[in-house]
Amino acid sequence: MNTAANEGAATPPLLDIHGLTKVFGGFTAVAGVDLAVRPGTIHSVIGPNGAGKTTLFRVVTGVLRPTGGTVRFDGHNITGARPHVVSRRGLTQSFQITNVFPRLTVLESVQVAILARHRRSGDLVSARSRRAADEATELLDEVGLAAAAAAQAQTLSHGDQRILEVTLALATRPRLLLLDEPTAGMSPAETGRMVDLVTSLAAARGLAVVLCEHDMDIVFGISHEVTVLDRGRVIAHGPPAAVQADPVVAEIYLGREECDRSL
Asked: CA 71 to CA 79: how far, in whole Å?
């Protein structure tokens, strides 16, 4: 992973964040965050509960407007842009499958997500829809869900639902994918499938991935870069080995009784 990160160091960032800040009343949730993510890399953002990770994701994707700072994606200033505008630029966060298309089949769910990319999500009978079905079949094969294509989305196992979330996001043809706790609640086998999928997407598609994950074995095992947040601020950043060895990071995670020792 470090070799790939070094090779990509000269590549301009796909996502370039400077001084990003979000204040709620008198509470600063995100404080002057700088972050750069390059194509084809996995960049993990970690921190204890309340560190500002989820707020950071929501500001980047346009769900929340920033109080200050800038977000640039592929050279374009998307600071404060609405979520649909951000998504059309190619920056997508995985859907929550429990709230999206639960009664459709797995194939239909992906087909609708593809049609939504063309702003035709209500059209399931036209020639465009048939082409979307072919594309959906290819995506399901890529992520390992082809055998479940005819099943209702809501009947999938927890692990398969999370993989379907990623598939729906892939249907938008993103260049950068935000994943918030993608392995939460998974069995070891399901976790292994998700990790393999994320690493293969970055390598085979050149997809940039920003990952928020509590399993540190995963974070330090697959990331090219790691950024650590604490109380809304970046307190460490760099290759996994350097972050892992940082005494400030160790103090935050191992020196506070209120923090989960597994992060």
From this structure: 5
Run of H or E including 152: none
Cα–Cα distance measured from residue 159 to residue 164, given in angstroms and rounded to the nearest whole number: 9
CA distance 37 to 18: 12
List 20's β-bridge partners, or say none: 33
Strands 225-230 and 42-46 turn out to be: parallel
Question: Is 32 in contact with 21 (CB distance < 8 Å)?
Answer: yes
The predicted-structure confidence for 165-222, as pLDDT tens digits, reads as follows 999 999 999 999 999 999 999 999 999 999 999 999 999 999 999 999 989 999 999 9
**pLDDT, position 81:** 96
Q: Are strands 233-238 and 225-230 parallel, antiparallel or unpaired?
A: antiparallel
Backbone φ and ψ for 145, nearest 5 degrees, come out as -115, 15
Residues counted in the chain: 263
In the chain, the N- to C-terminal Cα span, in Å, equals 22
What distances in angstroms separate CA 219 from CA 72, 92, 142, 227, 228, one per listed residue? 25, 20, 23, 11, 11
Sign of CA dihedral 140, 143, 144, 145: negative
Q: Which two tokens stand for residue 252?
A: 């935050």
Residue 258 is which amino acid?
E
The closest alpha carbon to 90, from 17, 163, 177, 202, belongs to 177
For 4, the 3-state DSSP assignment is: helix
Q: Is the pLDDT reported for residue 254 higher than 70? A: no
The DSSP element (H or E) to which 93 belongs, if any, is strand 91-93
